[in-house]
Design goal:
Strands 1-3-2 form a 3-stranded antiparallel beta sheet. The chain has 143 residues and is mainly alpha-helical. α4 crosses α5. The chain has a domain of 92 residues: Orthogonal Bundle (Arc Repressor Mutant, subunit A). β2 and β3 form a beta hairpin.
């Protein structure tokens, strides 16, 4: 996961599932596979990312951290879990390089490494909303 942000239009292009042969996802002139090709070496890691996100508490943590860093205790209160449980989830998210920890005295503050994991979570929620509401043309929403 790169730390460099992409414009919303670039995300929209990729999220729409259409590859026009430009940029990522095309073989280009070199003939080598790139990140969005079906034989991409990133697919295995992407599956691990989705596996990491397949947990309600971790999804909630990522959504909450969109607004900025928070200590474990406050995160625990906001997700309705014990600090010990939230710490275990945060350790997994740290190993997956989705969150960053910063110690200040005895307190540890957590923040998102970048916007990618939170974007995946928000898009999954929009997909769920679309599936439940049955709207054939949901609006594109980007945070």
């Amino acid at each position: 996961m790169s730390n460099s942000p992409r414009p919303a239009d670039d995300h929209a292009h990729h999220d729409a599932g259409h590859d026009t042969g430009r940029g990522h996802g095309s073989h280009g002139d070199s003939g080598h596979a790139t990140s969005l090709d079906p034989d991409s070496p990133y697919i295995d890691v992407a599956v691990e990312v989705f596996s990491m996100l397949a947990d309600q508490t971790r999804m909630k943590i990522l959504l909450i951290l969109r607004d900025g860093e928070l200590p474990v205790g406050e995160l625990a209160g906001r997700v309705g879990k014990t600090p010990t449980s939230v710490s275990q989830h945060l350790a997994k998210l740290r190993m997956a390089r989705m969150v960053h920890a910063r110690q200040d005295g005895t307190r540890v503050f957590y923040s998102l490494v970048d916007e990618h994991a939170a974007t995946l979570v928000t898009q999954a929620i929009y997909q769920a909303e679309h599936a439940i509401d049955g709207d054939p043309h949901p609006p594109r929403r980007w945070r």
